[in-house]
Structures are given as C-alpha cells and as structure tokens.
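Case study 2.
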Amino acid sequence: MSEISLKYNGTIPFIAFGTGTSLFKQSAYDGVRQALNKGVRHIDTAQIYGNEDSVGQALKDSGVSRSELFIATKYGGGRDVRSEFNDSLRKLQLEYLDLYIVHWPKVVEQSGGLAATWSEFEKLKSEGLVKHIGVSNFDNNDLDELLKTAKEYPEVNQIELGPTCWKKVEHIYKRNAELGIVVEAYGALAALTSPKSDLDNLFSQLGEKYGLSKGAIILLWLKSHKIVAVTTTSKDERFEEYNKVYASTLEEVDGEAISKLGKQYLDVKFPEHLSNVVV
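Prediction:
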C-alpha cells in the first residue's frame, strides 16, 4: 500500500516528505529534489515554514509531471485565507494544490473564526483551486466545533503521532477514523531520538524479523493504521527503504505490541499543539 483513500474520492500517498522541523526557515530545494529523484511524490510544506518558494523551484526544476505530484501546504493565519492561499500558490509555482490545511485551530482568528475560515476553504475547493482540504493539530473538541457549520468534512488531520505519544492521541485517531478523516503523523520517528529501552529493543527485534530499520518498523506501524507518515531524510538508503515498507505488512500481533509498549510513555515533542487534550 502506497496510497490511502480519502473521504471524497481520490487518494493520498502514504509517505510525505516534510519540509518543516529540520528545514524550518531554510531552503528545502535540495531536500525536495532528492526526495523527488528517489520517487517520493507527496511534498508537505506550510506558509509558516518559510520555504514554499524553494519547494516551488524544486518542483519546477524536477521535471516531474504535475499529475504525478501531491502537494500540500498550510494556512498560517497571517492574513485572510484568499490572500495567503494566492501567495502560497505563487511561491509554489502551481495552478492548484492537492491539499490545503488549516495549520492550527488558533490561526483562524485572522480570518473571522473557524466557521468563516472553513467556508473559505470550501470555496477554494469548489473553484477547483484545491482538490482536498484538511486541518492540523485539531483535537476532538476542535473537530466537533468545525463540524457544526461545515458543509464538507476535512479529509485529513495532521497531528503529532508516534508510538511514544500514542497514549495521548489514540482517542483523536479513533475519532477521526470514525468520521472518515485520514490522520497524518508528524514526529513519528521521535521515539528513535529519545529511545525507551524496552520499545527500542522491540523495534530492533522486529527490524531483524522484517529485514528493516527501526525507523521503517515505525512507518509500518503507521501504515497498519492507515496513517500518513510525514517524515524527512537526506539518506539515500532511507528513501530506498520506503519501497520495502510499501511492499511489507506488519503482523497484527507486532503492531499491538508496539502500541502496548508505546502507551507506557507520554513523550510529546510539541505539547502546545494539543494543549486541550486530556489523557
């Protein structure tokens, strides 16, 4: 599985190359070119990352057909939706977006509140300027508030999600799944940068079993939940391993073991984005 079905027709690639975090406020040109050269077709950026222009130039110079690409960026709330969207489209050198995302619930203050902001997103979609619309860092209360007035559900919700913060976000994942909203995970590989011995040992054991790296095992865990992985790498071997992940399936017992161990921890790297979540 390299694609996940979306609520209103179409699919989204399972792995996205993210241009935040390590590329924040830096040129993403080389990273995006490398990702595209290695076969990645889903590129995730945002107005606040400050690198949409370098992403756009990389897309243009890559020679990859627009129809093969899935490009997502996010509304940062600096101005009204239409102005910021047009600016992002210009920087990305595109005629339309595959996915446009409300970056945080709080950014809607600049565009008249959540209902008004989402209405503008729906207009962009109806005009053919965006194929899919979504949200990011929305907890269940935020989603419920949006759905009071929404004509269309968001098709994705991008949140921090990985084995070591599963305890905090599992109920958000389940609520989204009930609504047919695809969850996208950022920070999923954080468990490798501050390893927990028992969970790290499990990753190693499963890595040997499946012939994959520990990071790829986490990607398989996300895949088993039909969660999009937003991740970044500059290592050729990691890109090449993505094909093995696409072709592999995590046994249910192994996925459950990761979830069970992961829920012993509450290792959240970006707590301000899910400040309303109560464990």
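Residues 3-190+222-237 form a domain with the TIM Barrel fold (CATH 3.20.20.100).
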